[in-house]
Amino acid sequence: MKTRETLILNPSSNNKIALPSIILLPLVFLFTSSLAKTKSETIDCTDLQSFQINQGNINAIEWVAAGTFRPAGSSASVVNSPYSTLPEFCRVSISLHPSDDSDIKLELWLPLTNWNGKYMAVGNGAFTGNIRYSSMHDPLRRGYAVSSTDTGHSGNTASFAMGHPEKLKDFGWRSVHRMAEVSKQVIEAFYSTPANYSYWNGCSAGGRQAMVEAEKFPLDFDGIIAGAPGLDWTGRAAAALRAAQHLEANPQARLLKNDRQLLNEAVIAACDTNDGVRDGLISQPQQCNFEPATLLCANVSSSNCLIAEQVATVEILYSSPKNPDTGRAITGLLPGSELGWTDLGWTASARATGLDQFRYIVYEDESWTIDQFDFDRDIALAESIDNNTLNALDPNLGVFISAGGKLIQYHGWIDPQISPNNATQYYERVVDYFGGRDTIHDNYRLFMVPGMGHCRGGPGPDSFDIVSVLENWVENDVAPDSITAEHYSDGTVDRSRPLCPFPEVAVYSGSGNSDDARNFQCRVP
Asked: CA–CA separation, 129 vs 155, rounded Å?
């Protein structure tokens, strides 16, 4: 980590780079501590009682015995809890107030035994404002000091943002950056040594936060995992509302469960074997040439076809209309994702966050309804108003790359909640910005997962230890040329595949078990 900082900040370096203005903001968290101690002294939670945070405070410090933690309100017994195997740790609750209207909560968990010398921050989901306990237990179990933030509000809607621009900044980028700053300072005081490495791990909204960190605060983390990132936050909102508006107004155009099953079976039949094997997975859905019109009913009384209005719905969901102001495609869903669709198109979460985006942030009008939505007008307006507060669309990762940072992005090809085209579009824009894949390949790799839905789930290989892969890349300079992923049924592995760095895909060798990763090779199609 010190090497990364020297590369950027040393005035005598030949690699000097102008830092983005946003990362040159004055530090608003200054720490004072009388906690200096020798390594031989016992580490105790009470050591933090005298710790002072400017524009913030420690609310509570709690020693948690091994296997006893359970989130407030949890109905699961300690024995059956996913937290039952946690080691003892020090639980630190902190509030931060970087503006007069900010109240950012975070928790930092500090292992009292077998600390691995590293720090990991974990991400959030949708507009939800809470500490992400469900993402904290795995890092702690691995030996990490780990933190999570509520992003500056509570609840699961964007109503907090209406009339509160500072809270919107907290949610968009400030809470995660300040959490990283504060957590690393507390860690250094607590253990009398700084963390050797710092990591971010998040999916969905947590993936958006990951990309914000890489773009705006490239020195916060040595390694970043961005799963299914909602980096085009306004675009996804507009795409989901575009489909939902059409379907609310035209009930006959809706694709019900049986219709979606019929459609999915037709898509799989058309595009399954593009990778050389018939296995129910589409490895290259962007190259799937399925035509929805092939399912058009010749006879409206048939149950094995779609009427014209339904075919039009399929085309709407697959399509990627452009923002008329920027010319950038607002990406649609991909062939193969149909079983994750709903009667109103995209997932309920995508529709809810989309409605919130326009109701509370774009128009700041609680009475705003979906029938008022106009795609061409509103996508341009939403992106302009956002001005990269929530969106993470800047392809200039120059500081992060020059500092030696490592970024792994992954996305399921059948994700029905955040378009996989989000991931590939951004990756290709970064490649174009830097003049070729080879210029970024040592620092940024994208892995697309066939048959995986949103973050997890689906018939594809959705289980892989991405943390260990990133650690090996950051700490040992072993770049992931492929990642072995597995699919489990009833606790048993029934399929494995290599995940390949985009645009490479896993191609069947022509012999051996097609459910065994060893019989596939990564190739550029």
From this structure: 5
Long-range contacts of 515-519, Cβ-Cβ distance < 8 Å, separation of 24 or more: 515/279, 517/461, 517/484, 517/485
Distance CA 445, CA 158 (A): 32
Tokens representing residue 427 in the block: 């990756």
- Pairwise CA distance, residues 356 & 170, whole Å: 17
Q: What is the pTM of this model?
A: 0.90
pLDDT in tens, the chain (525 residues): 444 443 332 323 333 333 333 333 333 333 333 333 333 345 688 888 888 888 899 999 999 999 999 988 776 665 667 899 999 999 999 999 999 999 999 999 999 999 999 999 999 999 989 999 999 999 999 999 999 999 999 999 999 999 999 999 999 999 999 999 999 999 999 999 999 999 999 999 999 999 999 999 999 999 999 999 999 999 999 999 999 999 999 999 999 999 999 999 999 999 999 888 899 999 999 999 999 999 999 877 677 999 999 999 999 999 999 999 999 999 999 999 999 999 999 999 999 999 999 999 999 999 999 999 999 999 999 999 999 999 999 999 999 999 999 999 999 999 999 999 999 999 999 999 999 999 999 999 999 999 999 999 999 999 999 999 999 999 999 999 999 999 999 999 999 999 999 999 999 998 999 999 999 999 998
Query: What DSSP letter does each residue of 27-71 carry, written as one string?
Result: P---EE------TTSPP-GGGGGG-EETTEEEEEEEEE-TT----
Boundaries of every domain in the chain:
1-9+204-231+392-525, 33-195, 235-386
Is residue 272 a contact partner of residue 279, using CB atoms and an 8 Å limit?
Answer: yes
